[in-house]
């Protein structure tokens, strides 16, 4: 495990409780824009960052493992002088949160896991996607990714936002995306979930084709002690973006219960 200095955007009062937001594969810190103002208005210090290999963060040589992504978060907290933070992650960000919950629970005040999984196969799918991106770039997966991120109804109602998401995916570094595919391909945290002793909330999208409620969301909620499952209606994989009001309400409730 080796930490890199990830790109971060920090907003909110300097003395406010810290909330760290961790992005999905193929996105960057901008995917969390709908959550920033509501959190800052409640007095929280919001830390968004770009996962290694994404956005403005470094793209170190691979392979990457989920432990590396978790180590980057610990290095980020150390760099900011933050002893404990609330952590919310979606998809790959949620996988990072699971690793932190197992290996660095003392650094977490709460854990919100959105549209994610402790083991997301089949492994060959991730190997094939990495191969495609290395050959043709992230633009090759942008259209299909948006089709999983948001529902068709959302894309029809908000073509500008769907285009923004498509452009964001296409702008990600190909090698960083591919190396993160490898981390997901090899990840298996299922057997470690009962070790997580952090107050956790699982949020799933009712229409998520990538990490559907059954089995992924249900499995997390039943395996992590004291965890509840919330299912957002009319939400695909990027539930925080498609249903920002409901997601932010659930996130704020989870954070404030554990302040």
Automatic annotation (TrEMBL):
EC number: 3.1.1.24
Residue stretches making up the AB hydrolase-1 domain: 17-243
Major enzyme class: hydrolase
InterPro entries: AB_hydrolase (IPR050471), AB_hydrolase_1 (IPR000073), AB_hydrolase_fold (IPR029058), PcaD/CatD (IPR026968)
One GO BP: beta-ketoadipate pathway
SUPFAM superfamilies: alpha/beta-Hydrolases
Molecular function GO terms recorded: 3-oxoadipate enol-lactonase activity
Entry keyword Lipid metabolism: no
Keyword line: Hydrolase
Protein name: 3-oxoadipate enol-lactonase
Species assigned in the record: Amycolatopsis jiangsuensis
């Amino acid at each position: 495990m080796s930490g890199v200095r990830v790109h971060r955007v920090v907003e909110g009062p300097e003395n406010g409780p810290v909330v760290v937001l961790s992005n999905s594969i193929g996105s960057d810190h901008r995917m969390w824009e709908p959550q920033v103002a509501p959190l800052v208005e409640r007095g929280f210090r919001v830390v968004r960052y770009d996962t290694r290999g994404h956005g403005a963060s470094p793209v170190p040589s691979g392979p990457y493992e989920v432990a590396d992504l978790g180590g980057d978060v610990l290095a980020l907290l150390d760099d900011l002088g933050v002893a404990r933070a609330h952590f919310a992650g979606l998809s790959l960000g949620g996988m990072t949160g699971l690793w932190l919950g197992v290996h660095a629970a003392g650094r977490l005040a709460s854990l919100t896991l959105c549209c994610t999984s402790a083991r997301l196969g089949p492994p060959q799918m991730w190997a094939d996607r990495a191969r495609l991106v290395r050959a043709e770039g992230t633009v090759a997966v942008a259209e299909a990714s948006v089709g999983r991120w948001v529902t068709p109804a959302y894309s029809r109602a908000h073509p500008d936002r769907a285009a923004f998401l498509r452009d964001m995916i296409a702008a990600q570094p190909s090698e960083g995306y591919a190396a993160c595919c490898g981390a997901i391909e090899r990840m298996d945290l299922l057997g470690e979930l009962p070790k997580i002793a952090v107050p956790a909330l699982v949020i799933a999208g009712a229409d998520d084709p990538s990490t559907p409620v059954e089995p992924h969301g249900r499995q997390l909620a039943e395996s992590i002690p004291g965890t509840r499952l919330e299912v957002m209606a009319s939400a695909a994989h990027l539930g925080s973006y498609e249903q920002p009001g409901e997601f932010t309400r659930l996130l704020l409730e989870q954070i404030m219960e554990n302040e």
